[in-house]
Amino acid sequence: MSKLDDIYRAGLGALKKAREEGTALFDELVDEGKNLEREGKKRVKGLLEELTENVKETTESLSKSSKKELKSLSKRLEELTKKVEKLAKKAPKAAKAPKAAKAEKAEKKPAKKAPKAKKEVKKETKKSAKKDAKAPKAKKAKEVKPTVENV
User: Fold this and answer.
1) Which of 13, 76, 114, 138 is the most exposed, having the fewest neighbouring CB atoms within 10 Å of its CB?
2) pLDDT per residue as tens digits for the range 24-44
3) What b-and-e string marks burial along 92-124, b requiring 16 or more CB atoms within 10 Å of the CB?
4) DSSP H helices in the chain
């Protein structure tokens, strides 16, 4: 027999063995894959539960601190409101009324013109007009025609 025949027969033997053992190997690999899949799902489920718990705790913590801050701000607002009310009571009402009345009167009445100043301006205008009339008028310049002598 020749080497070629031996190679051919070795190939047929390998094929038979691969079929027999290959099926078993395949089934074994499928089982391992199923196990890994179960473990992976368990891990993911655990991580999701842990994450959910962390988010829940953080939300509750923020909610509690927000409630505390809101209560403290409400309390401070009440204190400031009381202080403003006390100050408003202490302020004399009599002092407020005249100022308000004066402001109302000022709004109703138009501003008065100064009649004396107006008369003085008229007088000054008349005086300056008289001075301008008395002032000598400027003489007209003579027209000089250009000639060879004055150029």
Assistant:
1) 138
2) 888 888 899 999 999 999 999
3) eeeeeeeeeeeeeeeeeeeeeeeeeeeeeeeee
4) 3-90, 93-108, 115-134
pLDDT digits (tens, 9 = 90+) for 127-146: 666 655 565 555 555 565 66
Domain extent, residue 53, equals: 1-88
Distance CA(50)–CA(90), nearest Å, equals 60
What radius of gyration do the chain's Cα atoms show? 56
- Give the three-class secondary structure for 151: coil
Q: How many domains does the chain have?
A: 1
Q: What is the pTM of this model?
A: 0.34
The single residue listed with the structure tokens 């109703």 is 108
Q: Cβ-count burial of 127 within 10 angstroms (0-12 exposed, 13-18 middle, 19+ buried)?
A: exposed
Decide if 84 is inside a domain: yes
